[in-house]
Amino acid sequence: MDKFTSNGLRNTWIKFYEDRGHVNCGAVSLVSDGSTGVLFNVAGMQPLMPYLLGEKHPKGTRLCNVQGCVRTNDIDSVGDASHVTFFEMMGSWSLGDYFKKERCQWSFELLTDVFGFDRDHLAATVFAGDENAPRDDEGAKYREESGFKKENIYYLPAEDNWWGLEFGPCGPDSEMFYVKDVPNCGPDCKPGCHCGKYTEVGNDVFMQYEKHHDGHLTPLAQKNVDTGWGLERILAFLNGYSDVYKVDLFAETMAYIETASNKKYGEDEKITKSMRILADHVRTSVMLIGDEAKLLPSNAGAGYVLRRLIRRAVRHGRTLGLKTSDLINIADIYITKVYSESYPLLVKNHDFILSELEKEINRFESTLENGMKEFKKILEENKSKGSIDGKSAFYLYDTFGFPIELTVELAEEEGLKVDEEGFKAAMEEQKDLARANQKFSQASTADAGVYNEIDANITTEFIGYLSLETSSEIKAIVSDGKVVSSIGEGDKAVIITAVTPFYATMGGQQGDIGTISTANGQFKVTDTVKVPGNRVGHVGEVISGSFNVSENAKLSVDEETRMATCRNHSATHLLQAALQEVLGESVHQQGSFQDADRTRFDFSFSQAMTAEEIKKVEAIVNEKIAEDLLVSTKVMSIDEAKESGAMALFGEKYGEEVRVVSMGSFSKELCGGTHVSKTGDIGSFKILSENGVAAGVRRIEAITGANVLAHYAVVENMLNDAAKAAKCSPAELAEKIQKMQAEIKALNSEVESLKSQAAKDALGNVEDDIKEVAGVKLLATKVSGVDMNGLRDLGDQLKTKVPEGVVVIASDADGKVNLIAMATDAAMGKGAHAGNLIKGIASLVGGGGGGRPNMAQAGGKNPAGIDTCLLEAEKVLASQLA
Questions:
Q1: What CA–CA distance (Å, rounded) separates 472 from 497?
Q2: What are phi and psi of 789, to 5 degrees?
Q3: Which stretch of DSSP H or E encloses residue 719?
Q4: CA distances from 362 to 241, 260, 324, 328 (A)
Q5: What's the rounded Cα separation, in Å, for the pair 311 and 360?
Q6: What pLDDT is attached to residue 752?
Q7: Is 117 within 8 Å of 111 (Cβ atoms)?
Q8: Of 97, 430, 472, 703, which is the most buried if we count CB atoms within 10 A?
C-alpha cells in the first residue's frame, strides 16, 4: 500500500506551512494572463509576479498553495517514466519576509521530520556564480547549518542553479537531492549527472533580482523566496516508484487502458509509451477545458496547444486500438474519481468537458482521414528526396488542418525529415499579408520604449466617467517616434495630459475621439490609447496652430460618439446575460468590441444558434431596455466582486479594486468601460448576424439606438424597391414571390424537357453504335451542345437500349467536353466499372474525373479528342471484363 496518497500529500504540504505562519492563497487558472510571456502558468510563482516585485498581497507575506501547471516545451519527452504536461506544484513563498536561513531550515525539516529521509542520503546544490551574479556562499552556509553535510553541498553553474522566466523576478536556486546507495559513476559524479545516483526532490529559489526585457539584472528591493516541489514526482519517489505513471493519480486510468486495449502496461516499450501519452494528454486536456478559463481547441495560442494534445491522444489511442468512447471514459475517470475532491470545478463542468472533448476528437477524425490521404501522396512524392519540403507541410496545415507536429511525427515513422524552417517561412509569408495598413494609433504604441524616456512621475488621471470636458496641462508629446517639446500644423502626434475625460481603448471598448484646444491651436483626437507608465495617449493631428509642453489645454470628448459607444457597450452586458439565460451558463465571453457603430460579441458555444434562439435573445435584451433598469457602478475589492456573483472576463487583468457594473438584478459584471445611466437610454437592440469564428466560439454583431432605426430605413427601402420590381405592394411581396417561384419552376421543367428531347433528336438512331465487348453491350456515342444534366438524362434513356451493358456519351459544349459513363447492374456483375472507365478515357479530351461503379462523369478542354476517347472506351471496358 502506498505510503502517501495524492490527497494526503497535498494536505500534508499545506498543514506544514500553515503551522509556520503561512496562508493558503489558493490556486488560479492554468491559462496565463500573458503578463509573463507564456501561454500557461508553468510554475506556482507565476501568478504571484506583481507581489514578488513589491506589490502588497492581500493575504500577507507568507503564502502557500498547490497550483496546477502546464508545460509543453518538452512534449516530445512525454512517454517516458517521468515527464508529464500537467503537473501540480506544491509551493510556499516569502514576500519580503524570511529569507535563506529559515527557508533552508524548513526544507530540511520537511525532508527529515515529515518525509522520513536521513541526512546521510541528502545532498544540495547552490549557484556557482558567473559574470551576472556572485557565488551563493550564503545559501551554502545555511544549507550546512540546517543539517546537510558539507561534503554533500555542491556548487553548480547557472544552467543548473539559476531560476527565472523570460523576464521578471529571478535569482539563484538551491536544489535538494536524495542520494542512492550506488557507486559513483566517476570522479565528477555529483547532482546533475544522469547516472541515477541523485534524484531531485525539491527546489528553493532565492529571488534577489529582476530580469528586464533587455536581459539586464537589477537587485530587488524586496527579497523573496519561492519554493516549488512537483507533486507527481515527489509522490512517486516517496512511494518507491521510479515511474510517475504508477502513482494513484494514474492508477485507474492505466487499469482502464489495459482492459480496453487488451495490452499490459510495461511489457512493450512502444505500447507503454502510447499508454503514458494517452493518459497524460487526456488528463491535461480535461484540466484545460474544465479550467475557469474554459479553454477550447483552436488554431492559435493556448487553444492550439490544447488541440495538439487532444490530437496526439487520439493518435496514440488509435495505436492501442481504443475508440472515441474509450477516450471519453478516461476523461470521465479523471473528473469523477481522481480529481473530484481536489478539483471540484471539473465536476461542475463535467458535461461541458466531455462534450467539447468529443467534438474535437470527431473533428480530428475527419481531419485525419482527409489529411492522411494527402500526406500519403506527398510522402510518395518525397520518399526519394528523404524529406518533405516546408511548403508541402504548410499545405497540409493550411488546407487540411494537419498540425506540423503530426506531419513531423508521421514523417519520422517513415524515415523522412520535414523542413520545419521552410514551414515557418510559408506561415510567415501568409501572416505578412495581414500586417499591412496599420493605423497610426497602432504605430504610436508599437515602440513602447519611447515612453520610458518620459519622467516616471508623469501619469494621467481619468475622469471620463463623470465628465466629457476638462482643462489640463500638456505633460508630454510624442511625434515620429520621439519625445518632443512642440508640434505644429499637420503633425501627427500623441499628446499626454495630467487629467483626461477621454476613455482609452481597453476591455473591448474603442477609445474616445474629440478635440484638444489651446489659445494657439486645435488638435483632432482620432483615437485614445493606453501607453506605458499609467498614461493616456491622445492620438491625432494638429489641425491648426501649434502645441507646446506645459501649455494648458481644453479637452473635449465627442459626446455623440461616446454616447453611441456607451449604448453598444451596455447592450453587450445585457446580451451576455440573455445568452446565458437562453443557451445556458456555459456561455462565456471570449472577446468583444464596441464602437459607435455596433457591438461585436464572441462567446463560447459549440453550435450555430437557431433562428428561434436568436429571436429569443434579442427579445430579452429589448425587454430589459424597455424596463429602463438602473445602471449602477460600485468599486470594491476583486474578492468582494467575485463573491457578489459579478462575471469577470477571463484573461483580463484586474487590480485589487474593481468596478462592478450592475443593470438592475439582471446583469452584473466587472467592467472598466463607460455605460448609459439607465437601460432605457439604449433605445433598441437588433442582432445583425450570428456565425462561427473558431471551433466552439460564436460571434454576434448587433446595433443599438439610432443605428437600429437607420438599419430599418435601409431594409424598408430595399423592400419597396423589391415590391416595385415585382409590380406589387410590400404587403403582397411574399405571396408574389411564391407565385413567381412556382412559375419559374414550371418553366424550368419545361425547358429541361425540351432540352432532353432536343438532345435525343440530335443523337438520332444510335442502335447502329451498339457493340458487344466480351458479352457486354457498349453504346459509346457523341452529341453536341448538351450540358452535364442533359447527358445524365440522356444516359438514363439510352440504358434502356442496352439493359445489360454500358453507356458512354461525350458532348462538346462551348468549346469544352462533357463526358459521362453508366453501367447497368448486370454489366457491373461482369466487372464493368463506370468510375474506372472514365478515369481511363478522360485524359484523351484533356480532362479528368471519376465516380461510382454505376455512374461517373468528367470534364475536358479538348473536343478534338472525343472520337479517340470513344474508341478507347471499348479497350478500357474490354480490360475490365477480361
A1: 6
A2: -60, -40
A3: helix 706-725
A4: 36, 19, 8, 12
A5: 8
A6: 72
A7: yes
A8: 703
> What pLDDT is recorded for position 833?
92
Reported confidence tier of residue 437, pLDDT bands at 50, 70, 90: very low
Structure letter (DSSP) for residue 29: -
pLDDT in tens, 238-247: 998 989 999 9
Q: At what angle do helices 248-261 and 231-238 cross, to 10 degrees?
A: 90
Are the beta carbons of 373 and 380 closer than 8 angstroms? Answer: no
**DSSP state for residue 606 in the 8-state scheme:** S
Cell triple for 284: 491535461
- Our CA angle for 733, 707, 606, nearest 5°, is 80
Report CA 111 to chain centroid distance, whole Å.
41
439 DSSP assignment: -
CB within 8 A of 717, min separation 6: which ones? none
Confidence class for position 591, pLDDT limits 50, 70, 90: confident
Cell of 868: 479517340
Q: Cβ neighbours of residue 855 under 8 Å, at least 6 residues apart?
A: 792, 795, 820, 821, 822, 823, 834
Residue with cell 527529515: 112
As given in the structure block, the three cell numbers for residue 24 are 493558503
Phi/psi-derived region of residue 168, left when phi > 0, alpha when psi is between -120 and 50, beta in every other case:
left
Q: How far apart are CA 111 and CA 88, in angstroms?
A: 19
Residue 673 to residues 462, 506, 508, 510, Cα–Cα distance (Å) = 12, 8, 9, 10
Buried b (16+ CB within 10 A) or exposed e, 740-764: eeeeeeeeeeeeeeebbeebbeebe
Residue given cell 487558472 in the structure block:
29
pLDDT of residue 467: 94
Cell representation of residue 89? 506544484
Q: What is the DSSP string of 449-514?
A: GGGGGS-TT---EE-TTT-SEEEEEEEEEEETTEEESEEETT-EEEEEESEE-PPPSBTTBPPP-E
What's the pTM? 0.57
Strand, coil or helix: 201: strand
Nearest CA among 108, 127, 201 for reference residue 170: 127
Nearest to 169 by CA among 219, 204, 229, 131: 219
Q: Are 537 and 516 in contact (CB under 8 A)?
A: no
462-475 pLDDT tens trace: 999 999 999 999 99
Site of grid cell 485507474: 252
Of 74 and 425, the one with more pLDDT: 425
The residue behind cell 556564480 is 129
Q: What kind and span of H or E run contains 253? A: helix 248-261
Q: Is the pLDDT of residue 2 over 80?
A: no
Give me the amino acid identity at 542.
Answer: V
Mean pLDDT of 779-784: 89
Contact (CB, 8 A) for 219 and 84: no
Query: What average pLDDT does this structure show over 494-499?
Result: 97
| Ranges 73-77, 546-550, 565-569, 875-879: which has the least confidence | 73-77
Residue 131's pLDDT band, with cuts at 50, 70 and 90, is: confident
Predicted confidence band at 448 (pLDDT cuts at 50, 70, 90)? low
Give the torsion through C-alpha atoms of 419, 425, 430, 431, to 10 deg: 130
**Ramachandran angles phi, psi of 112, nearest 5°:** -95, -50
Tell me the C-alpha to C-alpha distance, in Å, between residue 841 and each of 245, 810, 813: 59, 11, 18
Beta bridge partners of 308: none
- Which residue stretches of 584-651 are H helix? 611-626, 638-643
647: phi then psi, degrees, rounded to nearest 5: -80, 140
pLDDT at residue 36 greater than cutoff 60? no
Instruction: State residue 759's pLDDT score.
Output: 62
Residue with cell 477550447: 296
Average pLDDT estimate for 140-146: 96
Residue 409: count other Cβ atoms within 10 Å of its Cβ.
14
Q: Assess contact for 166 and 36: CB atoms under 8 A.
A: yes
